[in-house]
Write a structure and sequence with these properties.
alpha/beta; 5-stranded mixed β-sheet; 5 strands; 32% strand
Length: 122
């Protein structure tokens, strides 16, 4: 049973759009599983990924750890991970744990697109 689903919903230029749905936890993931690789392919970490968090209903420390590790993989490969549209409670938790200090967190998709454009032109 999947508690969490990452769905690729489109791509435009150097940006890939995904949505997170369900419980953002690594519970039930097989060893070595990575939803970005499984759903977007091996080149995903070199892309600018806009991740819609509006479908996240729960997040735990394992989910936040995966976001932090993923962010480092994007950075190391020359890509960028930009999270956006988190519910107020999810955003509050991300800010409380200070993950927003190193993972880009935008209020909405237009802001995320602007940040991605700035990252591409930099």
């Amino acid at each position: 049973m999947n508690l969490f689903d990452l769905r690729q919903v489109g791509s435009e230029g150097e940006c890939v759009r995904v949505e997170f749905v369900g419980l953002l936890t690594r519970e039930g993931w097989p060893l070595g599983h990575d939803p970005f690789l499984a759903n977007c392919g091996p080149g995903v970490f070199g892309a600018r990924v806009l991740a819609d968090l509006s479908g996240v209903t729960f997040i735990d420390s394992s989910g936040m750890g995966w976001l932090a590790v993923s962010n480092a993989r994007f950075r190391d490969a020359g890509g960028a991970l930009i999270l956006h549209s988190a519910s107020p409670i999810t955003r509050q938790l991300l800010e409380l744990t200070q993950i927003d200090q190193f993972v880009t967190l935008a209020a909405d998709e237009p802001t995320a697109r602007r940040l991605a454009a700035e990252a591409i032109s930099a």
